[in-house]
Amino acid sequence: MSNINQSGSFTLGDYSVKRLGYGAMQLAGPGVFGPPKDHETALAVLRAAVAAGVDHIDTSDFYGPHVTNRLIREALHPYRDDLVIVTKIGARRGTDASWLPAFSREELTQAVHDNLRNLGLDVLDVVNLRIMLDVHGPAEGSIEAPLTILADLQRQGLVRHIGLSNVTAKQIAEGRGITEIVCVQNQYNLAHRADDTLIDELARDGIAYVPFFPLGGFSPLQSSTLSDVAARLKATPMQVALAWLLQRAPNILLIPGTSSLEHLQQNLAAAGLVLPKNEIAELDRIAGVGAA
Ligand SMILES: NC(=O)c1ccc[n+]([C@@H]2O[C@H](COP(=O)([O-])OP(=O)(O)OC[C@H]3O[C@@H](n4cnc5c(N)ncnc54)[C@H](OP(=O)(O)O)[C@@H]3O)[C@@H](O)[C@H]2O)c1
């Protein structure tokens, strides 16, 4: 029986959340566009996550668009007091499902109001500004203009905390000069470790690091090393990938995404999986880290 309390907890601004949460993006239709393939299962996944103790859900109004937020509201509203919903703004969807930047004052303001309405909230707990200088990965460039607009919306009382997504260390430093940054959400997993140094720096400053694609994203991680370690530990490869992240740094919060009740239960059970040092060393070799 899984107990996600075993994952421990970490702070997100003035909230404390369990380190094993849930990412809602996979609930939208194919390509994160349109309605889910099975509406009732999508609601059941959300309810099962919260019933199992998940108190941190990651979402955005540009998933669908509007689809995952409305599912969250339908499944879980009125929300439990301890549930922290983290959303993100800065992108919009083209009619062809493309991901486009949306950084004007009008677009950012509209995005905050869309999230409030579709989630059924008066204040958003945490809003990540998703930087789109390069949609596929962090790219240098000032984030001052859009972050100042989001900080204005925070001052108006619409947003409690602010985070950054798809950013470089330089952009995080620039952001922290403008407003408090409580979390960073970049791509990271045991095969994609560009942020190793950044994670440790953020840990020292008490800032949460929330890896997106913790399981590899649209093409889940596949590695014979990962499968071998999982077989030895009598776990699944995805559980090992999550346990590795939990042991990687104390400020890592997990938001694995799934549209499947079975996968959800498997992922939550990773909270209780402890990886011995020799297995971690072997997993580190997947990304060429710590190789002898
Ligand atoms: N800030 C950003 O730019 C950004 C970008 C992408 C995502 N995100 C956030 O990060 C969250 C996590 O990312 P993600 O969902 O894209 O990727 P992910 O968590 O790395 O992986 C999701 C994929 O893994 C599969 N999966 C999940 N659990 C599994 C299991 N136990 N066994 C086998 N397959 C499993 C899912 O398919 P099934 O549905 O079949 O389980 C799905 O294909 C998202 O929900 C979203 O909130 C943020």
From TrEMBL:
MF-aspect GO terms: oxidoreductase activity
Superkingdom, taxonomy of origin: Bacteria
Keywords associated with the record: Oxidoreductase
InterPro entries named in the record: AKR, Aldo-Keto_reductase, NAD(P)_OxRdtase_dom_sf, NADP_OxRdtase_dom
CDD domains linked to this entry: AKR_AKR13B1 (cd19088)
Record's keyword annotation contains Chaperone: no
Span of domain NADP-dependent oxidoreductase: 19-286
Database matches in Pfam families: Aldo_ket_red
Family matches, as SUPFAM superfamilies: NAD(P)-linked oxidoreductase
Keyword set includes Calcium: no
Gene Ontology cellular component terms for the protein in this record: cytoplasm
Protein name: Predicted oxidoreductase
